Amino acid sequence: MIGVFDSGFGGLTILKDIRRKLPQYDYLYLGDNARAPYGTRSFDVVYEYTLEAVRYLFSQGCRLVVLACNTASAKALRTIQQRDLPTLVPVADSSGLPSKRVLGIIRPTAESVGLYTKNGHVGVLATPGTVASESYPIEIHHLLPEVVVTQQACPMWVPIVENAEFDGDGADYFVEKYLNEIFLKDPEIDTLILACTHYPLLMRKIEKALQKRREAGMHPVCLLAQGRLVAESLSDYLNRHQELEKQLSKGGNCSYLTTESEDKFAQSAAIFMGEDICVKHIDL
Ligand code: DGL
Question: Domains in the chain, ordered, with CATH?
Fold first, then answer.
């Protein structure tokens, strides 16, 4: 089974594309909705919460956990991979790698930036935590040192999504606010990364605001959501790690867990996933 973790609903935007690309596997989604948002929390708290989630998903039989959350990937992934995995999963398999793995979503996103930007001006829209971690500028500059990376924290976007207000009129104000701020910092941006998995749920509003800019004579901007990029990268990872791939169950099922109310999760998740959701409440 593959575990997919996020602070709340955002990871569903990744799960959807992963399941489309790799429908054969069984998935277990965990949304820590009761403690979302993570993006405004400290490094230590995000790390603790993420580790609890990883342990839980391992205990349920997941051999691989995808942190479908940029904030968790930025603040917890490296420590979990380097410090915790060797103790959580003491037995390494014949490849010398841990028999259970945790993957993040920042590197696969950063790796694809070069395919999209034409003028080398990239914007990163993310939570305050992801922005403060500098993970995106670091990862992008590692591959493309000459690219100009401009970041913008969008602290109101996750609460809007978690409260199912992504289609509401109030969302337009905050969508335009942060887009105006990032284009003020660098008007030349030609590629915008939605570097928080919640943000694709605001896609219609973001596209509408960008359309308004184009009508006002501004240049077109390529909007990059992570789902497809992560799905491609995961598929490639599993091809390269057959020892792990062989251990993943392949029943094509998907189950959901939330730390919040089951009804609330099922209602919103069914809209995002386009199917009925059966969800179980858990405490971490
Ligand atoms: N969806 C998450 C991300 O990609 C976290 C949002 C939050 O809880 O603040 O960063």
Answer: 2-104+227-281 (3.40.50.1860), 106-226 (3.40.50.1860)
